[in-house]
Amino acid sequence: MIYTITLNPAIDRLLFLEKELTKRKTNRTSKVTYDIGGKGTHGSYAMTRLGVSNLALGFAGERNFAAFEEILMQKEISHRFIQIPKGLTRESIVVIEPDNQGSTMLTEPSFSVGEAEKQQLLLFLKKYLTEEDIVLIAGSLPENFQINDLAELIQAAKEKQAFVACDLSGEALLLAAQLGVDFIKPNEFELTELLSEKTGTVEEALEQLSREITCIAASKGEKGSICYYEGKQYQVLAPKVKEINDTGAGDCFVGAFLAEFSKCKDIKEALKTGSACAASKVQYEDSSYFDPKEADILKQQVKIIEL
Ligand code: TA6
């Protein structure tokens, strides 16, 4: 089983502009849609679309839980979110300009997580996780969920010998790397920051980091991504597609990568699947949708170069 944990989910409100976003002007929208928000929920959506059983966990606000759950049901995401009493799941406003000019995201503050709810999540992992499972902890931390709470969560998963994947940033990413998890997805800046904690040359630092982290999928922006796995480096060149909305593409990559990896344990296949599903995703308007059949075709265009 794959468990995804979204500590700070969102309801994504997507605003489609009639014209380019312009400051000090009334920017009129032609359409408004909603999607599930939060990196772990997007990972679960990708796993579900690929037919890999998974359960989406995390926290969600009590006050708009019905609206949040309605989108989860529409996306057919199996879930077991812990409700935050009197809490409101935040909205992420995604402004999408016409003619593929890109998207801009504005996200609201989160609810505040209480100690009782933290313990509920921890106890769930301690009760149900096994060494056969994968757990993905993804996205930002909500208010009052401290770094040491995250450490407890990661350590509980490690103690069960599950495969621990983290799509985190900032201090949370540094913690995950220090604790030695199985998968991280740093961007270029974050990778540099992680390596600066090590000694020696970049290569030597990478060597050290790769000994502590089973798989590092470092995104290199336009240059695709580089994966470090079992002492080897793979450059991943994604297919070229027409981008409508890149929101959630990285989340889709992670979910699809883990789904494939859970089945075949083949790093190249998993990288190809992740990259192809993310390429399919950016061609669609919302934050999560992609077409597995289209991704299957795009998979042939993914280039994996062993460095
Ligand atoms: O990556 C896309 C997304 O998950 C959106 O759904 C939006 O809700 C935002 O990112 C949330 O990001 P955060 O880093 O706060 O978890």
UniProtKB/TrEMBL annotation:
InterPro entries, sorted: PfkB_dom (IPR011611), Ribokinase-like (IPR029056), Tagatose/fructose_Pkinase (IPR017583)
CDD domains assigned: FruK_PfkB_like (cd01164)
The protein, known as: Tagatose-6-phosphate kinase
The protein's annotated pathway: Carbohydrate metabolism; D-tagatose 6-phosphate degradation; D-glyceraldehyde 3-phosphate and glycerone phosphate from D-tagatose 6-phosphate: step 1/2
Record field: catalytic activity: D-tagatofuranose 6-phosphate + ATP = D-tagatofuranose 1,6-bisphosphate + ADP + H(+)
The protein's Enzyme Commission number: 2.7.1.144
Organism: Enterococcus larvae
PANTHER family (alphabetical): 1-PHOSPHOFRUCTOKINASE (PTHR46566:SF1), 1-PHOSPHOFRUCTOKINASE-RELATED (PTHR46566)
Family listed: Belongs to the carbohydrate kinase PfkB family. LacC subfamily.
A Pfam family recorded for this sequence: PfkB
Keywords, sorted A to Z: ATP-binding, Kinase, Lactose metabolism, Nucleotide-binding, Transferase
Domain Carbohydrate kinase PfkB: 18-289
